[in-house]
Amino acid sequence: MAIKVLIPTALQKFTNNQATYEGSGNSVSELIESLEQGFPGIKSRLCDEQGQPRRFLNLYVNSEDIRFLDGIDTPLKEGDEVSIVPAVAGG
């Protein structure tokens, strides 16, 4: 099952400068594990010690924020697109 992951520039140094990744998994948490297998160490940049997405990252499945879906348990299917978007702050 191919799921397209869009990697932000700030994290591309952990993905050998790849802006996209074709991953797999039945949920966002499984997809993160797929990313970790492909790029060891990236999971610690995406998730905290409890396995939850870090507060400064937003994850979207087909433009829907997973916080308003089922969080990391949000189901995925073939052809879905997951975006990793770092939070932006400033003033």
Unreliable stretches, pLDDT < 50, 5 or more residues?
none
Task: Please indicate the percent range of residues in DSSP E strands (runs of 2 or more).
Answer: 15-25%
How many domains is the backbone divided into?
Answer: 1
Strand order of the largest sheet: 2-1-5-3-4
By CATH, the superfamily comes out as Beta-grasp domain
Mean pLDDT: 94
Q: What is the radius of gyration?
A: 12 Å
Considering DSSP H and I runs of 4 or more, what fraction of the residues is helical? 10-25%
Beginning-to-end CA distance, first to last residue: 42 Å
How would a textbook summarize the main sheet?
Answer: 5 strands, mixed
Structural class by helix and strand composition: alpha+beta
In total, the number of strands is 5
Tally of alpha and pi helices: 2
Question: What is the CATH architecture descriptor?
Answer: Roll
What is the compact description of this entry?
The chain is α+β, with helices and mostly antiparallel strands and 91 residues long.
Overview of the molecule:
- This protein has 91 residues and is α+β, with helices and mostly antiparallel strands.
- The chain has one domain (3-86): Ubiquitin-like (UB roll) (Roll), CATH 3.10.20.
- Helix content is 18%, strand content 23%.
- It has 2 helices and 5 strands.
- The protein has helices at residues 28-38, 42-46, and strands spanning 3-6, 20-23, 57-61, 64-65, 81-86.
- The chain has a 5-stranded mixed beta sheet with strand order 2-1-5-3-4, covered by helices on one side.
- A hairpin with a 2-residue loop joins strand 3 and strand 4.
- The chain is globular, with a radius of gyration of 12 Å.
- The N and C termini lie far apart (42 Å).
- It is an enzyme of class 2 (transferase).
- This is Molybdopterin synthase subunit MoaD.
